[in-house]
Amino acid sequence: MALDKQTITSELGRVGLPDGGDLVSRDMIRALTIDGGTVRFVIEAPDAATAARMEPIRAAAVDIVRAIDGVTDVSAVLTAHSAPKTAPAGAGDAPPSLKVGRHPTPQAGPVRVAGVDRILAIGSGKGGVGKSTVSSNLAVALARQGRRVGLLDADIYGPSQPRMMGVNKRPGSPDGKRIIPLQAHGVTMMSIGLMVDPAKAVVWRGPMLMGALQQMLGQVEWGELDVLIIDLPPGTGDVQLTLAQKTELTGAVIVSTPQDVALLDARKAMDMFRTLKTPILGLVENMSTFHCPHCGEETQIFGHGGVAHEAEALGLPFLGALPIDLQTRVSGDAGVPVAAGEGPVADAYAALARRFIDGGMA
Ligand SMILES: Nc1ncnc2c1ncn2[C@@H]1O[C@H](COP(=O)(O)OP(=O)(O)OP(=O)(O)O)[C@@H](O)[C@H]1O
């Protein structure tokens, strides 16, 4: 019999906590995925101090799931999140201004974005590994599966989503306060690149970036979304820091190519998210195998499987591999993500999206 989430959740509900309740009743299980006999999940403690005491609980959870018929492998990651569950009173009340990049309005701590169920930050250590490509295609693939998806291009230094999603209109504002996002391929989208000249944004530092991000999240009329995907700049800079500190992120997904040098940088990005107490929900390998369209031969241009191994070594979920593919690049440049069409790469993105939905991440 195929494993199902309900069976696993009900077993995890037997893992009690010293201060009362259990892992399920206390809502600590995140990103539960089942892949054949392999079960992966994240245990999210309310804060770092609690997480530090929870290793025996994590081990008990692994044992209890491993004992389920059909389970061959279990990976459970312990993370901590210090964010409050609700937006503090008054958050978002400050008079907004459409001048993007102003100084931020004071904000007590991480806040939710009204109407948005989950926020995923898509990060990478290195630039050029395909983080924006994966963000846009994943967004489109999720929308094709009926999810309500938002895409925020927060790559302030090199916004590429307008080009990849085929939009270049400046978003409108009926009252000079609210910003109306654009729609493309079933996705609600917004890019800092549509509001400001990236050449100017390059010199922005902490407070200016914080103000701009606060506006993108607070003033944009996102509507009701199942998931908002945020395409981050590469590396570990001010945008990541600001976002993790000011917004209640569901978690981060790391995109890397398979070769060691990219993985080295990906590790730095993961270290940063761990320090910021943002749960890392998993890793995606981009530019994996190349399938020759002429002879059908497979070539591992950047190697293959490096990200899956890294995920395994770190006990993190491996979410999927996407091939290196000419059509992906051409479609991205043409503003129609490959996931919007048909074919093996669109299928790979559909499978990735399914994984996110099944894992409760979208
Ligand atoms: N799987 C793929 N196959 C072929 N080309 C790809 C693939 N993924 C991305 N590309 C191409 O590689 C280039 C860089 O991709 P992209 O802009 O998504 O990377 P990035 O990590 O977001 O970079 P940066 O952070 O510097 O913006 C683009 O031209 C894109 O079309």
From TrEMBL:
Belongs to the Mrp/NBP35 ATP-binding proteins family. SUPFAM superfamilies: Fe-S cluster assembly (FSCA) domain-like, P-loop containing nucleoside triphosphate hydrolases. Binds and transfers iron-sulfur (Fe-S) clusters to target apoproteins. Can hydrolyze ATP. Homodimer. Keywords: ATP-binding, Hydrolase, Iron, Iron-sulfur, Metal-binding, Nucleotide-binding. The keyword Nucleotide-binding applies. ATP binds at G125, K126, G127, G128, V129, G130, K131, S132. Pfam families: FeS_assembly_P, ParA. This is Iron-sulfur cluster carrier protein. Residues 5-75 form the MIP18 family-like domain. The keyword Metal-binding applies. Transmembrane segments: none annotated. One of its GO terms (molecular function) is ATP binding.
